[in-house]
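User: Let's play a game. I give you a shape written as tokens, and you guess the letters that built it. Ready? Here's round one.
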């Protein structure tokens, strides 16, 4: 499993539009993608799981990928986060 932690600096909370974009990126991964905030976690490929975390600016979030291409796929997710959430 490969993971990275980041802090949301996007001016708004992770709203449905941005969460949908994150889910779309996660769906492009062949491995299992998990999103975690504090003690809560969920499947990053499911919009309801992502939205249920109620991620707000300044909060720390962890994304992890488990699978054959996890190194490559975590880099793709990092690029998305750096462009849209930081």
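Assistant: Ready! My guess for every position:
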């Amino acid at each position: 499993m490969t993971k990275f932690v980041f802090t949301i600096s996007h001016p708004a909370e992770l709203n449905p539009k941005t969460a949908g974009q994150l889910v779309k990126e996660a769906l492009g991964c062949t491995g299992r993608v998990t999103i975690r905030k504090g003690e809560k976690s969920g499947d990053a490929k499911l919009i309801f799981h992502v939205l249920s975390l109620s991620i707000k600016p300044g909060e720390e979030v962890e994304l992890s990928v488990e699978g054959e291409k996890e190194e490559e796929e975590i880099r793709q997710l990092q690029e998305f986060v750096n462009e849209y959430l930081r």
